[in-house]
Design a protein that fits this description.
By secondary structure, this protein is of the alpha/beta class. It folds into 2 domains: 24-207, Rossmann fold (3-Layer(aba) Sandwich); 215-301, N-(1-d-carboxylethyl)-l-norvaline Dehydrogenase, domain 2, CATH 1.10.1040. The chain has 13 helices and 8 strands.
């Protein structure tokens, strides 16, 4: 039934989005993810408007982009410093900033949010922008755990709504998960796939299911490692070493948890557990909950499963 509905919705999708080439992008959220996406889009010739709540945040975002570009130039233009400086200035010229999301959306082919993982806040944002953005504008969320269909429900452009899940750090990570809901039109989905390729990324097609592909496999794996440790069946150090040397992973599950953020891990698991409380893969961890309650989120707070100086 879902497949049938999907085809019907695609058949009646708005012709306004057909053959749209995404040139101007509005990115809502100037944090690490938003700034990273802005950098990559600007580096590939897109006109980018980066939006956040105040100018101080945006200045910090642009400074972070410039610092990241300098690191790129140091490797890519090692023997051509003038060409490297020219590249940096060209990319930065493609980035403008604004504290007015509504105004920015009015001239955008794509509006992509990378804000806090809060469903209501995302719904309120898109509900407001839906009234201001042109009919052809595609909306997308960078959420890693919330259903795209739930976020899109606050708008009247369900056929022009999808997910673009980037990975951190965005300039380095090649993958983008492109998510379509049962109402996303084929034209919209193709536009998002093509946009991802234009960024130099490798897109994979995903359904609107919990965690999409990567997190749906990765998070339960990490949680099972935590449960293994809780049962006393291995130390966290040995589990990390085992997965790095035995499975060839660059980081063990506890190292990765600290890098991702234990608060983020808990948020994802709590959401999945609420949706499917009888799934043993989504069972909570007492240890994880305890560390989060103590404010030990991982590298960003100086302590998680490990301590950091």
């Amino acid at each position: 039934m879902a497949f049938f509905t999907h085809q019907i919705c695609r058949g009646f999708s708005s012709s306004a989005v057909r053959n749209v080439v995404i040139k101007h992008v509005t990115i809502i959220g100037g944090g690490q993810m938003g700034a990273g996406i802005a950098q990559v889009a600007a580096s590939t010739g897109h006109s980018v408007t980066l939006v956040d709540t105040n100018d101080d945040i945006l200045k910090k975002s642009v400074k972070g982009i410039e610092g990241s570009l300098k690191r790129v130039v140091k490797k890519k233009y090692a023997d051509k410093p003038e060409a490297g400086e020219e590249f940096i200035q060209k990319v930065l010229q493609n980035v403008s900033t604004s504290t007015d999301a509504g105004s920015a959306a009015q001239s955008s082919d794509l509006v992509l949010e990378a804000i806090v993982e809060n469903l209501k806040i995302k719904q309120d944002l898109f509900g407001r922008l839906d009234k201001l953005a042109p009919p052809h504008t595609i909306f997308a969320s960078n959420t890693s755990s919330l259903p795209i269909s739930d976020i899109a429900s606050s708008t009247n452009r369900l056929d022009r709504f999808g997910g673009l899940h980037f990975f951190n750090p965005v300039p380095m990570m090649k993958l983008v998960e492109v998510i379509g809901t049962s109402a996303t039109s084929q034209d919209t989905f193709d536009s998002l796939l093509n946009f991802s390729k234009m960024l130099g990324k490798t897109p994979v097609s995903c359904k609107d299911t919990p965690g999409f592909i990567v997190n749906r496999l990765l998070v339960p794996y990490i949680m099972e490692a935590i449960r293994l440790y809780e049962r006393g069946h291995g130390s966290k150090e040995d589990i990390d070493i085992a997965m790095k040397l035995g499975a060839g992973y660059p980081m063990g599950p506890f190292e990765l948890s600290d890098y991702v953020g234990l608060d983020t891990m808990k948020f994802i698991m709590d959401g999945w557990s609420a949706k499917d409380p009888h799934n043993p893969l989504f069972a909570p961890s007492e240890l994880l909950n305890k560390l989060v309650a103590e404010g030990k989120y991982g590298k960003k707070t100086g302590e998680g499963f490990y301590k950091y100086k």
